[in-house]
Amino acid sequence: MRALDYRTDSIETKEGLQAIARRPHNAPPVRETGPRVNDRIRSDEIRLIGAEGENVGVVTPARAMAMADDAGLDLVEISPNANPPVCKIMDFGKYKYETQKKEAEARKKQKIIEIKEVKFRPNTDTNDYDVKMRNVFKFLENGDKVKVTLRFRGREMAHLNLGRELLERVAADIEGHGKVENFPKMEGRQMIMLIGPLKT
Fold first, then answer.
1. 118, 124, 172, 195: least CB-packed within 10 angstroms?
2. 144-154 per-position pLDDT tens digit
3. What does the alpha-carbon distance between residue 149 and residue 191 come to, in Å, rounded to a whole number?
4. 125 exposure class (CB count in 10 Å sphere: 0-12, 13-18, 19+)
5. CA 4 to CA 191: how far, in whole Å?
6. CB within 8 A of 180, min separation 6: which ones?
7. Any residues with CB less than 8 A from the CB of 105 and at least 6 apart, and which?
8. Global pTM value
């Protein structure tokens, strides 16, 4: 059972300092991540791979631990869902370092695609339209998706066809720069279209 961490505060009264007990600090238990190592391996039997990569066979964790100690290395569970689980004798510190390095490399290579929003009105004039389209092209060139939002106010809801025509014009103008992923659809008082960058 986990020990509770009782915290106390003190306040000053006429009679002097008085200690007040506060409720216990119940921090959630820390979850372990990563493979089980050494005495944390709970199975009765494991399939063991030796320090040189040789297949030792099915042994008890105690025997595998003794072999790892003799080699001056750790016993690491590399495939916990196998039956029996597969463990390997290796340098866990080195293994952890290499895993973190691989994950950092993978993160560097992946491109995070953001969704940028450009807002239009059904009666957007030519100059405004050109400025907004420059932004659309810039976002697409950076590899981001663009959510084109067309907002209708009041009586403009009676002229949805004007909004659709404007979005069709946007779709025609971005040809060669991006592709329409979600065609115009109404969401409340807004007509929305999603444009994605072309794959290079």
1. 172
2. 899 999 888 88
3. 6
4. exposed
5. 55
6. 171, 174, 193, 194, 195
7. none
8. 0.45
Distances (CA, A) of 46 to 9, 78, 93, 133, 136: 51, 11, 21, 62, 57
Q: Which residue has the tokens 């372990």?
A: 32
Strands of 55-59's sheet in order across: 55-59, 46-49, 86-90, 74-79
Q: What angle do CA 166, 167, 169 make, to 5 degrees?
A: 65
- Confirm if 73 and 90 have CB atoms less than 8 A apart: yes
What is the C-alpha separation between 65 and 79, in angstroms, rounded? 17
User: Residue 176 in 3-state DSSP?
Assistant: coil
78 CB-near residues (< 8 Å, 6+ apart): 35, 49, 86, 87, 88
User: Residue with structure tokens 């809801």?
Assistant: 157
> Which two three-digit tokens encode residue 19?
């200690």
Residue bearing the bigger pLDDT, 179 or 27: 179
pLDDT tens-place string over residues 92-108: 888 888 888 988 888 87
Burial of 139 (0-12, 13-18, 19+ CB in 10 A): buried
List, as one string, the DSSP characters of 20-62.
Answer: EEPPPB-PPPPPP-S--BGGG---S-EEEE-TTS-EEEEE-HH
